[in-house]
Amino acid sequence: MKQCLNDGWAVREAPLHYGKEMAGWILNQTDGWYKNQTVPFDVHMPLIEAGIIRDPVISDYCFSSEWIEKRSWWFKKTFDHKKDEQTFFSVKELFIESLDMHADIFLNGVYLGHHASAHFPFRMDVKEFINNGDNILLIRLTTGLEYINDLDISEVNYAVCIEANNGCPERGDMRRAFLRKPTYVFGWDWCPRIGTVAISGNVYINSHQYGAIRHVGIETVSIGKKAVVKTIVEIELLDTLQTADADLSICFSYNGNIAAKAKLNDILIGAGTNYITSEIEINNAEIWWPNGMGDQPLYDVEVVLECMGGTDKYRPFKYGIRTVELDITRMDEKSRRFAVCINGENIFCKGGNWIPADSLYARVTPEKYFALIEEAKEANFNMLRIWGGGIYETDAFFDACDQNGILVWHDFMFACAAYPDHVTDFYDLVAKEIDYQTKRLAARTCIAMLSGNNEMHSMMSGWPNTKEITLKQEKQYGLKIANVQVPEYIKKNCPWVPYWKGSPFGGDSPGSPYVGDVHHWGECMMNGDMEKRIEPREYDKVLSRFVSEYGYPGPCSKETVEKYFDNKPIERYGKVWNLHNNIFEKLTVDAGIKKHYTDRELSFEEYLLYAGLTQSLMLSYSLESLRFKDYCGGGLFWMYNDCWGEVGWTIIDYYLCRKISYYGVKRAFEPIKMIIREDNENPGKLIVLGCNDTVENAVFEMTYGYNGFCGEYIADKKEIIIPARKRIELVVFDKNDRSAENGIWFASASHDKIKPAVFYACEYRKWILPNPVMDYTQYENGTDKIIEINAKTFIHGVYVDMPLSEIIDDNYFDLLPDEKRTVVVKNGAGKHFTVKTVEIK
Prior knowledge:
alpha+beta, six-stranded antiparallel β-sheet, 17% helix
């Protein structure tokens, strides 16, 4: 039986030095409480609601709320509890999913203990302290920073990333390495410092009698006519002195019908922890596939324990039947594959990096999670990588990924720092976190890989001023967690889940192109040479087996910029603009516009347009380049979503509005796609690659060749079959020394789901284009508006001018002469839209 305690909380502040001994005084205070709060919530939220502070993700208001870090915060909940019939061996557990961060917990004046991590729950049997009737739960919380002193910091300060050297001294705090909470809240290149204090998960009283199902793990052993799944059920017998007879049932249902059921009768369990393993056969199983490769059927799973006359039901959950492996087999004498293998098929992982969806992560709703994941699916993603400086995401996030076919690469929460794993108390605290999270994620369909950390191996081996120190003094703090501790718990709790020691990791040093994954920053976007930052063809040189990070910045829409300017005048390069401009942008956006489009003075609206188009070019071209390489197992750009509004890495902004680059990424990830690149070994030759992620062969007639802007046209035809779920070379043809300024090389298909592939050999601004000629018609189909666009000439940057509230399936694209493109505006019936083109000067 579960009693939810999420509603009806109150919170108040007090001086930081008011410790747990002040609990009685706090409870006697009648004023200063912000009431009627619902967990999860952060202390910033009631303060915003009461007008005490302004939303810190807006304008420069983050500075005016810094004082919150320097106070203690007291959360109070009064609740009525009806005691049920109890036995000597029953428990009533107070379960608090997440406490951010250092917490002291009291129930009815009894001190329950201290909790020092946001990354695993507080759980305690409170049977002897809970009243039949009124109860008071009191929690003191602080950021935790006050626990760390200069002596502590001196042990790790050689290798903790902060942004002081990048012009933002307020972003970053070396003390974060000692705190088990989301570290991004102290500031990163892409977010402000907003120190969180929160009850950031559900709170409830959970009652068990005799036995409790603690965790359920599921492995798909095999698929076929009969799928075999193995379940591992962790049962705790609450009687600490004896054995007990028990029955355990495990039921898989699909669409309301029982597909398979295992009934384990008369099993013997002993005091404390027991692991019950069983294999279940499911006939004619529905198989789960990543987005674009098939459907995502999910089975309902129910697990019930009957023991000593009592019944314990594990929370119902859904599971998709699929196998998952990491293919790291040898390719040649110096390289190995790095490919996720689902249901026996190596896939190209298409997606981006995920960060918490708000600087105040406790206010991210299930609705926002589902909206973001559905937008990722619409953009043809099949993977998101959860970066290691944020949070272990919520059940709502994983539910959305399971339903939408989005695989998850999940870092453990360690990023860009030396962590004090040589300190026993810290190491033991982390052990509880890893034990909990590996059990929690063990039955998640979407989990494709777990990774030890973000950039810690590379930081210790190659970042400035760290390699000599770490090798000389052997102070490689934090690596024991990823290298030793995490594998132990993976083996114990979810050995079927692929594990990689870090990201990047592999080869003779982290970032090797021939083994493992890389973060492709220094070669392009973080290169000191601006030309390498803004030249998309640099990505044709990538040799890596898997690119798990790289990026290029771009702005949001005018409407979004107005929101984060709090509807005040927008001043480019003013204080607010610079605050919301990514630290590493460093005039890259302006340089990209000048290289690819124009060096004339731009209006603000033109800046947003050309900057968005340039980000779209850089991301789409680079992702195509990675997908083109048959040895590359994936391309994950940095980053998909945002925690506030800024000129930054994302393709969808904080307010869930698509940036221009969203559409370029979507086209790069089309399930069936052709890509043209120059043959590096045979200059003057072009290769057309065909990609088919779908379950069926793609059969069509391909036309390929050169299309001049003023009429020159040279083309051949070929009958094509791209096998299901494969990438293959379709044709090699000559460039024939045709002019890059006067035309493009192309490949088009008779297949209506395959867009033309185009190869550009010079910057857009060097094109000698005729005036664009096109016509378009619009009509309604139910609630949608259909727009058919017919190009008479080659046209660059065709777009439907529309408010951000409208949703369109494609936008900001090029059209070949005589090409027709149909776009759909969802729920656009009854509205009229204008189709425009981008001017190049």
